[in-house]
Amino acid sequence: PGQACFSRFSLRQKERRLQRGQCIHTRRAEGGAFSGVRSFERAREKRRHASEGASAERRRRVEQSTLTQHSRQARRSAPVRSAQEREANPSRAAEAGRMMMTSNALQQRRGVVPQRRAVPRSVRTHAKKAAKQKNIFEGQRPWVELKDGVPVDGPDLSCVVDGVKFPNPFVIGSGPPGTNYHVMKKAFDEGWGGVIAKTVTLDSSKVINVTPRYARMKSQSNSKEVIGWENIELVSDRPFEKMMEEFKRLKDEYPDRVLIASIMEEYNKNAWEELIGRCEECGVDIFELNFSCPHGMPERRMGAAMGQDCDLLEEVCGWVNDAANIPVWAKMTPNITDITNPGKVALDAGLEGLAAINTIQSVMGINLDSLRPEPCVEGYSTPGGYSSKAVKPIALAKVMSLATMINEKYEGKKSLSGIGGVETGMDAAEFMLLGCDTVQVCTGVMIHGYPLVQNLCAEVQEFMVKHDFKSIDEFRGKSLPFFTSHTHLVQLQKEAQERKKAAKSGLKSDAEWTGDGFTSETESMVSN
After folding, report:
1. How far apart are CA 341 and CA 457, in angstroms?
2. Among 279, 293, 317, 442, which one carries the catalytic annotation?
3. How does DSSP classify residue 137?
4. Burial 364-380 (b: 16+ CB within 10 A, else e)
5. DSSP codes joined into one string, 163-197
6. Closest C-alpha among 449, 477, 474, 453 to residue 464
7. Taking CA 76 as the corner, what is the angle to CA 75 and CA 80, rounded to the nearest 5 degrees?
């Protein structure tokens, strides 16, 4: 009797019953008033205030939305970018200004602070600040800091190739390290002299990669050391338009750095001409023609299938040379008996230079547990391209042949970019001693990372200091004259033996003996 009993009904149900006069009230023992009625009134007042607050919030949002629409409309109308445009569009400029002022004033009266709309991360055009450079080998290898690709101290490493200036001779080779804007930007930030993007074609929809697509060969004495690397990866599978956007963005942000477009197409003149024109519009500095991928869709007469056919190669190089307005390099395949034959064809067609070598066709191995080849995709594999330090001796031999041909046939006036197993500055120096203007690195970056270029530069500088070379030009090709034929080697050895024998013939008369050289004179006449 001393308590109100409303537990069976919700608050809303109670209110409806109260309004109809059907609610039974009980008297509180202490107060004697109808406490149930007062409870309903308090609840109803609370809901009314809440409803008014919600309505006010809705009105505020509508006003804010209206202000935002005014602001957007003003921004669309406002950008008259020059005095000439303002003179040509006075009514547009005035109307835009009035709309912007009206919008701002209205927001101030409403107590609303206009906020700038954030630019989405994906469309920002400014370059992110590069991270501080450091020695990834923690003091185990020489290191130098690079500023815009130029060493902060030590001998000059810059070079000019086909009229294009490189801050240093090290170039990212075409492949995974040049797949998109972000990785190419990283290469420039770390100091690479140039970047060759992963090979592009007009229709990337035909390019379908598989995973896994790499296999490694490690040293038996050091399980952490990679000496061989096979890949079955195809060219870029990214849309051509997207790659063109990123080329342009890179050149906008790094106008003084060298960006090279690696391109490949089918036997189609119009396709090659379109590819050349579209890439040039993006501002690339050099073209590298991929005539050498050993597993890149040979059924479509692309890659090595084109580079091994000199008649086909001659025609395509002619198309490209006629269409291009910037230097062009032809990338040579090592999977051929004499690499100088396609090299001559490409240079005779008018191209400025060659790059060698691409990967060597290979099968990495067979898994002796599963009896399946590596890399294994659903139990199967296909021959791929072999790279890393194990291929360096083969690459040096091919480069030597091409450099000799360039010197003899073109008087050294064609350029050569060396590729194959470069992981140290000493490796690079060997390629340059054989006549290479630049040195490309791809697998080495995949193993060690983009900062590797700082070690490469420092090690080449140490080599230059040791031999007192002031520039790369002073030692480029310096070892090339010391290669000859096997017949000439036999002749040289015979002449050396004859000179040695003559030196040991002894004294011709007793009058030739001397006191100071008596023991050596005696030795010169001993036969064994």
Report:
1. 33
2. 293
3. T
4. beeeeeeeebbbeeeee
5. TEEESSSEEEPSSGGGSSHHHHHHHHHHT-SEEEP
6. 474
7. 85
Q: What is the pLDDT of residues 204-218, one digit of tens each?
A: 998 999 999 999 999
Indicate the DSSP class of residue 473: G
The DSSP letter of residue 377 is B
Per DSSP, 119 falls in state P
Strands 415-419 and 353-356, sheet pairing? parallel
Query: Is 293 labeled as catalytic in the residue annotation?
Result: yes
- 24: left (phi > 0), else alpha (psi -120 to 50), else beta? beta
Query: What was the pLDDT predicted at 93?
Result: 45
Cα distances (angstroms) measured from residue 241 to each of 201, 202, 238, 247, 328? 10, 9, 9, 10, 22
Q: How many helices (H) and strands (E) does the chain have?
A: 16, 18
The whole model's pTM is what?
A: 0.73
Residue 515, token pair as written in the block: 């006191």
Neighbours of 123 (CB within 10 A): 6
Highest mean pLDDT range out of 36-50, 81-95, 258-272, 507-521? Answer: 258-272
d(CA 166, CA 163): 10
CA distance linking residue 311 with residue 313, whole number of Å: 5
- Tell me the pLDDT band of 67, cut-offs 50, 70 and 90: low
Name the residue among 64, 144, 135 with its Cα closest to residue 103.
64
pLDDT for res 123: 41
* Dihedral angle sign, alpha carbons of residues 66, 67, 71, 72: negative
Average pLDDT, the chain: 84
110-119 pLDDT, tens digit per residue, is: 454 444 444 4
Neighbours of 135 (CB within 10 A): 16
> Quick one: which H or E segment has residue 14?
helix 11-20
Strand partners, 161: 164
Q: What are phi and psi of 396, to 5 degrees?
A: -60, -40
The two beta strands, 360-362 and 384-387, are antiparallel
CA distance 302 to 297: 6
Cβ contacts of residue 89 below 8 Å, gap of 6+?
A: 80
Residue in 309, 326, 344 with CA at minimum distance from that of residue 261 = 326
Condensed to tens digits (0 to 9), the pLDDT of residues 439-487 reads: 999 999 999 999 999 999 999 999 999 999 999 999 999 999 999 999 9
> What tokens does 278 get?
């579209």
Give the DSSP H/E element, type plus range, for residue 365. strand 365-366
